[in-house]
Amino acid sequence: MRKAKFYFNLSFLTSIVVFLIAILESSIFYLSLKKLEYHIFIIQTMVSALFILFLLIAITIDKLFPVYWRTSFWNDKRFANDVCKIQANFSKKSFLAFVILTLLIIGISFYTAFIRHNYNLNFSQIIALCLLFWTTFFALKNFCKKINIKD
Predict the structure, then answer these.
(1) 34, 64, 106, 118: which one has the fewest Cβ atoms less than 10 Å from its Cβ?
(2) Where are its TM segments located (predicted)?
(3) At how many degrees (to 10) do helices 92-110 and 123-146 cross?
(4) Which pairs count as long-range contacts for 56-64, CB under 8 Å and 24+ apart, including other chains?
């Protein structure tokens, strides 16, 4: 359980930092380099800000909305067992496919940003979204360890 919680905390904090870097990156591209149009700058900044807000609300939802949390599906044992059984069936091949897909997405965004010089896709934002997927994966793993479901 400690290992899953450590990886969850690490990916959570890293994704917040990288979303902040994405805001900084789009600001540099718009203000200094003049590579972005105004509406693309606003969209990239707002998407990063909304994901940061989503992450902060998701981590504190049990304290912010206790009524919702007490009646949510995650406190229903049958639903939690079903979700954890699906997570337990997530084999090593599926995990390897997940890693390859993440690297492929990062590679395509690297090619688009640095080789084709198309800055409509924010490279830091793509990396932060991949980290957000990893955060979700480790949060689910940590949740299943808490309710003692073998994986």
Answers:
(1) 34
(2) 7-32, 38-61, 95-115, 121-140
(3) 160
(4) 56/16, 59/12
- For 117, counting Cβ atoms within 10 Å of its Cβ (0-12 exposed, 13-18 middle, 19+ buried), the class is exposed
Q: Report the C-alpha gap between 8 and 95 in whole angstroms.
A: 16
Rg for the chain (alpha carbons), in Å?
A: 18
88-107 exposure pattern, b = at least 16 Cβ within 10 A, e = fewer: eeeeeeeeeeeeeebeeeee
Pair of tokens at residue 52: 């940061």
Taking the domains of the chain in order of start, what are their residue ranges? 2-146
Contact in structure between 113 and 119 (CB atoms under 8 Å): yes
Tens of pLDDT along 10-19? 888 888 998 9
At a CB cut-off of 8 Å and minimum separation 6, what does 25 contact?
122, 123, 124, 125
As a whole number of angstroms, the distance between CA 29 and CA 37 comes to 9
